[in-house]
């Protein structure tokens, strides 16, 4: 049966958006029914005025359907991607998570698969804690967290907690190379489940 996949991202400088788009492309080419949603960020317009990098994908991101918990109810697999802010998810992603409370009480998301992705500046940035914040949210919703297998991409290691990409101090190191290989391989793994 065709798997229904939803990819939810928050992004300011474009990196989580690019990873979400890459997942979308892979799920589509591997035969899934896939949708992509952006988390509402009331500060995006203002940030794009202040930082050139935040303006680069702004219009493309804003053209994507806004996420709501309700829109994810028919998904078999949900991917959630957030920039790492202070070793956690961004405020916009946290607000989105908090909007699940009506669905939490009824365990409406129980049994769905959840896969986390994030970006952070570098290896000391606490990106794994952001991934775990997404995973812990998933557990509260009764979802099944999907880990990254240790042999996902030969010769490359990723946290078990999800896909993490380092963007550097200026958030301008775009996902490429091993990250894109990991997206493709992880899509295959998720569709095997
Ligand atoms: C408020 C704020 C807090 C941040 N905190 C961290 C952090 O704790 N660790 C880190 O490595 N990077 C941190 N960063 C950098 C972001 O992780 C980086 O801008 C983000 O991964 C880029 O993702 P995006 O291109 O999808 O917006 C922070 C950035 C902002 C604006």
UniProtKB/TrEMBL annotation:
Regions crossing the membrane: none
PANTHER family the record matches: FLAVODOXIN-RELATED PROTEIN WRBA-RELATED, FLAVOPROTEIN-LIKE PROTEIN YCP4-RELATED
Segments forming domain Flavodoxin-like: 5-193
Gene3D superfamilies with a match to the protein in the record: 3.40.50.360
Domain of life according to the entry: Bacteria
Cross-referenced InterPro entries: Flavodoxin/NO_synth, Flavoprotein-like_sf, FMN_Rdtase-like_dom
GO CC annotation terms, alphabetical: membrane
Matches recorded under SUPFAM superfamilies: Flavoproteins
Pfam families: FMN_red (PF03358)
Species in which this protein is naturally found: Sedimentibacter saalensis
Protein's name according to its UniProt entry: NAD(P)H dehydrogenase (Quinone)
Gene Ontology molecular function, alphabetical: FMN binding; NAD(P)H dehydrogenase (quinone) activity
């Amino acid at each position: 049966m065709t798997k229904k996949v939803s990819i939810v991202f928050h992004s300011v400088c474009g990196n989580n958006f690019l990873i979400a788009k890459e997942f979308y492309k892979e799920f589509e080419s591997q035969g899934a029914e896939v949708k992509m949603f952006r988390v509402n960020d009331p500060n995006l317009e203002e940030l794009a005025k202040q930082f050139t990098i935040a303006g680069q994908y702004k219009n493309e991101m804003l053209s994507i359907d806004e996420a709501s918990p309700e829109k994810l109810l028919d998904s078999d697999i949900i991917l959630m991607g957030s920039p790492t802010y202070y070793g956690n998810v961004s405020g916009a992603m946290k607000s989105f998570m908090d909007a699940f409370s009506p669905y939490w009480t009824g365990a409406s998301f129980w049994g769905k698969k959840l896969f986390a992705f994030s970006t952070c500046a570098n290896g000391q940035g606490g990106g794994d804690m952001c991934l775990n914040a997404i995973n812990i949210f998933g557990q509260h919703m009764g979802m099944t967290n999907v880990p990254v297998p240790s042999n996902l991409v030969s010769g490359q290691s990723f946290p078990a907690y999800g896909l993490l990409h380092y963007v550097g101090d200026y958030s301008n190191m775009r996902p490429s190379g091993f990250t894109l290989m990991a997206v493709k391989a992880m899509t295959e793994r998720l569709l095997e489940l």
